[in-house]
Amino acid sequence: MSHSPHVVTVTAANFQAVVIEGSYERPVLVDFWADWCAPCRMLMPMLAKLAEQYDGRFLLAKVDTEAEQALAAQFGIRSLPTVQLFRNGQAVDQFMGALPEPQVREFLDRHLPRASDGMLQRAEAALASGDLAGARALIEQTRAEDPDNKRLPLIEVQWLAGSGEVAKALEAIDSLPLEFVNDPEVAALRGQLSFASAIEDAPGEAELSARLDTDPRDSEARYQLAAHRVLRGDYETALEHLFELMKHDRAYGEDAGRKGMLAVFDLLGGGNDLVARYRARMMNALY
Q: Where is the Thioredoxin domain (predicted)?
């Protein structure tokens, strides 16, 4: 396997090109080893075999720490073997010691792209274009061919949301695996679904606006109008309504104004100027 295209020896001279830059193209598994290390000699043939079996889904890069002590120090290698996985220019995970093959496979499968990922990407594109039938077909194909793809449940939630099955989508999102609990994409989707749920039986925007003109303290009308505005992408107006609701009626919907603002922040992402402005206003009003 010394001539395998999936296994390469790395030195300080080519580490940047092979590992850092190369990890933008495919994951790179870096095995820090030494000839005197018996566990290293046990692990290396197994990693080389997996590199062949995974057929290019990752590159195995071998670093002899005796010859490349500066590299080992740079990446904080204190015990051997240490194996680090690089993606998009950074080490994203590692393990130490000669793990059994099933555990190494599990480690790899957490990070490597799957053949079915492309189908799910096409399903998301179909959903974005309104092609619900096409998205459903791709979801069903993925379920048949790779039911263990961890993104499959999330795409199914997106399909339910796109189909208007808001209650079912909310139920499904609460059943997602634990690894999605802190996922920003899931937080944004949950917020969208909560706003969609809020206006399922609500009046239209014109009637809600008229109610607010008559009674600016009509909290239900203000929240439902904010939800309408979120769903059609008018986030600034939505945040203004939610801010007013937070200031004047914290009791409504168990602090629905503040919670609604946080949901919009999740939808827009932390780097958005609108988020920064309204987060500052919210903090000033609260404290």
A: 6-113
E strands along the chain, which residues? 7-9, 28-33, 59-64, 82-87, 90-96
List residues bridging with 84 in a β-sheet.
30, 94
| pLDDT tens, residue by residue, 9-35 | 999 999 999 999 999 999 999 999 999
Question: Number of helices and strands (H, E) in the chain?
Answer: 14, 5
* Interval 182-204: pLDDT, tens: 888 898 999 999 999 999 999 99
Q: What is the CATH number of the domain that holds 94?
A: 3.40.30.10
Q: What is the phi/psi pair of residue 111, to 5°?
A: -120, -25
- The pair of structure tokens assigned to 26 is 């495919």
Known catalytic residue at 37: yes
Beta bridge partners of 96: 82
Catalytic hit among 18, 30, 40, 245 = 40
Q: CB–CB of 228/201 below 8 Å?
A: no
From 111, 139, 158, the end of a domain falls on 111
Do 237 and 174 share a structural domain? Answer: no
Give me the catalytic one of 7, 19, 30, 37: 37
Q: Is 40 tagged catalytic? A: yes
Question: What CATH number is attached to the domain comprising 279?
Answer: 1.25.40.10
